[in-house]
Design a protein that fits this description.
By secondary structure, the chain is an alpha+beta fold. The chain has one domain. It has a two-stranded parallel ribbon with strand order 1-4. A two-stranded antiparallel sheet has the order 2-3. About 5% of the residues are buried.
Length: about 70
């Protein structure tokens, strides 16, 4: 719970800065890039792989969480 609260605090600090985007998936997994979840996880209609592509292409990715 401590880490989740810290991540939510971080988001509050950067939410209005377009240089930052966050994608908080449910669960306690840390590394998503190597698993199937990277391609299958969708939150609020935003697929993790699509969100990540936007980050890499310097497109607006926004903040996503369950």
């Amino acid at each position: 719970m401590l880490i989740r609260n810290a991540l939510l605090d971080f988001r509050m600090w950067v939410k209005d800065d377009s240089r930052f985007s966050t994608y908080y998936a449910p669960g306690d997994a840390h590394a998503w890039l190597q698993g199937c979840g990277f391609y299958t996880t969708t939150i609020g209609g935003v697929r993790m792989a699509d969100w990540f592509r936007n980050v890499l292409e310097a497109e607006p990715a926004g903040h996503v969480d369950p």
